[in-house]
Backbone:
């Protein structure tokens, strides 16, 4: 490569990010040269901060710069409902929706014995602790409908059996706006199974 | 947005790069959290260095960290041939090809009066100086075949008329491997015009 070392380093760094290949990395590295000094400083500092400042909320596991994340700190949230998600970014989606006002719990993964991820590898111990300590009445599992997701859901259901808490999971079915012609048979069969009376 | 400030800052910075929208920026910012400390340090430092260390070669205008770029410093290059390109990244393409051993000259843009880019805005003065001072016998114009490219090529040809130097331009025509059925009429007409005797 005939670029100066700095640019080659930038290319290498961009290439480490998912979905960025040689050509895109090169384009991005050259685009960095056109960024203004302010952006460069913020970018450079934020990268450093990502390793230093960002940690997991001690209560729910969400990304935060403090001990508790801004949702756990928020006194207006409904502390009776807990929504269990796989990753922090799922919380952002739920918050964008704007209709859920309970608390969250981030698992940080799903049980997948084939990949060596066992129940003790995800944030389950903390979940049980929260059920014991906090005043939670309903645990909503918002986990993707895959083998790992189902396994995790069943495990959590079993784990919380002995507590006075309702465990529910979000509905799987046909997404709004989709044409039934294009829905795969598994989704369709799950949607059929989960049919509800029209009130 | 429900991300910590550092992550929001990273998202903003990634979004400033070309071709990166909100969703991709979010994905990349979260992927940064999985990079190891070494990569983060290199990434952060390289961003800073891009503003401090990277400059244009005083001779050819190529990106470099020194006064002269590594091609201009290379004593084994053929100093009789000069390849004029629009941007530094074009040099990388030529170097990958591996069959050109002359020197380069980076214009840093093409003449485009409509966009307010006049001959004095691109690296032409330096080109004329080089023709005067260096022992250049042929100037190859490797500029894209567009209105701006053609204007620039004609201007350079005119500019160098008074010097004892041959000005050529790379061939425009049908790319190797392409099916003639899919070639646009302008390319086809240029390819026809530029036909050569089969030796």
Residues:
């Amino acid at each position: 490569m005939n670029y100066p070392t700095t640019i080659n380093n930038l290319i290498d760094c961009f290439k480490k990010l998912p979905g960025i290949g040689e050509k895109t990395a090169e384009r991005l590295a050259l685009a960095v040269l056109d960024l203004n000094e302010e952006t460069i400083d913020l970018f450079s500092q934020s990268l450093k901060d990502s390793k230093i400042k960002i940690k997991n909320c001690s209560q729910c596991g969400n990304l935060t710069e403090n001990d508790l994340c801004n949702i756990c700190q928020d006194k207006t949230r409904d502390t009776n409902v807990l929504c269990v998600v796989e990753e922090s970014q799922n919380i952002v989606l739920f918050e964008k929706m704007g209709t859920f006002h309970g608390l969250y719990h981030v698992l940080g993964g799903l049980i997948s014995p084939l990949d060596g991820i066992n129940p003790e590898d995800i944030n389950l111990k903390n979940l049980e602790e929260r059920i014991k300590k906090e005043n939670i009445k309903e645990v909503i599992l918002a986990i993707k409908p895959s083998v790992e997701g189902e396994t995790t859901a069943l495990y959590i259901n079993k784990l919380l059996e002995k507590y006075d808490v309702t465990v529910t999971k979000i509905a799987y079915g046909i997404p709004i706006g989709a044409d039934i012609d294009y829905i795969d048979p598994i989704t369709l069969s799950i949607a059929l199974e989960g049919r509800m009376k029209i009130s």
Observations:
- Chain A touches chain B through 52 residues (CB under 8 Å).
- Chain A has eight helices and six strands.
